[in-house]
Amino acid sequence: xxxxxxxxxxxxxxxxxxxxxxxxxxxxxxxxxxxxxxxxxxxxxxxxxxxxxxxxxxxxxxxxxxxxxxxxxxxxxxxxxxxxxxxxxxxxxxxxxxxxxxxxxxxxxxxxxxxxxxxxxxxxxxxxxxxxxxxxxxxxxxxxxxxxxxxxxxxxxxxxxxxxxxxxxxxxxxxxxxxxxxxxxxxxxxxxxxxxxxxxxxxxxxxxxxxxxxxxxxxxxxxxxxxxxxxxxxxxxxxxxxxxxxxxxxxxxxxx
Length: 256
Prior knowledge:
Elements: H1 15-29, E1 37-40, H2 41-49, E2 65-69, H3 81-87, E3 91-92, E4 98-102, E5 105-113, E6 122-125, E7 128-132, H4 136-141, E8 144-151, E9 157-164, H5 167-180, H6 185-199, H7 204-216, H8 222-232, H9 239-249
Parallel strand pairs: 2-5, 5-7
Antiparallel strand pairs: 1-2, 3-4, 4-5, 6-7, 8-9
């Protein structure tokens, strides 16, 4: 599902709802790992913006679930996280990517971890293939909990308080995803960035203040994030906002 859409209007209406349903199922299955996880990526932005009245930017479309996971998830006595997900109906691709088969196709669960001094690569964390991503430790440190309802891995309707990455670390992660991306998907990242800042339920001032706090907290991804903002988001006519507009309005501007 997550590999096809390149413009806002190509994302199906069910996207975020299907991803949220998969999140609830995964979260219930991963009960032994709740302290090791937080939701990052587009789904976090969706839940931070969905309740804003009259948003300048509509809640970001998303088609998958991204978790930040700590390396400490390997330290416990519980069965591996991958085993818990497999028991709940999740499966793995040949490359080790976890997914849930839904009525709309495969919905992927991706895992990100921090492993200094590495800035790229993968790590096996509780039998899950996790991509190395600077800034994940900050994402895990001070999440915002939001209620999400759905059916758990046993089929019962439940409501969970699920930790979502706080605004500052999430903005760092999204800016750095933009910096490292090429082609059409860059427009989606640019739109995510503007949506989080301008449509957050707590207002743009709180997002900007939280982002500034990341420098004091020595977020490992902050240097790249600042360089990217200065190069691509320095004013309304810069490439970043232009790509966000192209993604939303489906214009033919160069997306590279």
